[in-house]
Amino acid sequence: MMIHPTTQALRRRAPALASLWLGVMMIASGQAQALTPVEVAGNAERANVPDGATLDKRVSLRAPRLISFGPEDEMFIGSQSGRLYRLQPPYDHVDAEISLPGYPHSAVVHEGYLYVATTERLYRTAYSPGQDVTETDFEGVADLPGGSGHASRSLSAGPDGRLYVALGLQGNCSAQHVSQDTTFEDRRGGVMALDPTREAPEWTPYVSGLRNPIGMTWSPQGALYLNNNGPDHWGYEAPPELLVRAEAESFHGMPWYQWNEGEWQRDECIDSAPPAGRDTLAPPVAKFAARSAPIGLTFLPDDNPWQVDMVTAIHGSWATQASGGRATRRPPKIVGIRLEDDGRQGQVIDLVGGFQAESGERWARPAGIAYRDGALYFTTDSGDTGLYRLTP
């Protein structure tokens, strides 16, 4: 990950580039920066981007969600429309569209297989780049806790060769917990791991205490970071959404505790005893405004032009303030996170905005996000849906 000395070294090596982006960095955590309005190539909309950057629509897709890359730079995009999309560079058309049952929210290529996570099952098929794939090629690998409520299942290949899936609680205060002593269908609200090389792969608990973790990514050093969408029963302004750093068996409070006003506070909506006390809970790495719904999350290489360590897609809230209409919804945007040296605290920096008009009307809601060769790619599953690219 990029730390402050690395950023300074980058500036020494590329003074012109550093000067261009210096204004991006010189802000306090959570504050907006000055962005430049530009026309979006490929549609009739406008967006606010860092000075000198361009934004273009690459291709239309139906309700696309998380993005991943496979061998030979193939791009895979899950969706809410029952489709898995594959795109080849330069990602301006769909190379393959695979119909799958359920909600194929995310996919990864790992050790010669294409894996897809739906709400209730992990699927796979043997795979090589460019291969034709149909629904009948997939086999079930392992069931997942299904049911109503938060239905996305975010899939990632870990540095240890295992597969990891993030899944949310059914609701705000569901008595669910990712642990061995919880029934399988109630193992929700965290992360589970699976060794795909075993003859009969099974999910094992890994992280617990997250209401709805969707974005999931690994640092270059192998640390796991997750976005968490907080509850909505505390009102419009609290608690904030969180970015957390997770470790094996770490517990992150929910639904028994919520991070608010700089401390973990007991949530009385659930009366069962919490699995651990608040003194065991680590503070979040960063926070976002309540109800803003962070989704896609990824690390960037040190030499990226945006001079941040991570980026996340802020989906924007469906909720409004009690005294207002749609104009009071949290706006969608793309933000960067610049981490401190130890990777346990971060500064949030606006990178792209302008998706929501003053009236509250939106032309995009970012969902998945990925980085390749200096460009940021993101999907929007609402408005003018599809894949977009931000270039410096």
TrEMBL record:
The keyword Membrane does not apply. InterPro entries: 6-blade_b-propeller_TolB-like, Glc/Sorbosone_DH. PANTHER family: LARGE, MULTIFUNCTIONAL SECRETED PROTEIN, LARGE, MULTIFUNCTIONAL SECRETED PROTEIN-RELATED. It comes from the Bacteria. Residues 1-34 form the signal peptide. The keyword Signal applies. This is PQQ-dependent sugar dehydrogenase. Keywords: Signal. SUPFAM superfamilies: Calcium-dependent phosphotriesterase. Residues 148-309 form the Glucose/Sorbosone dehydrogenase domain.
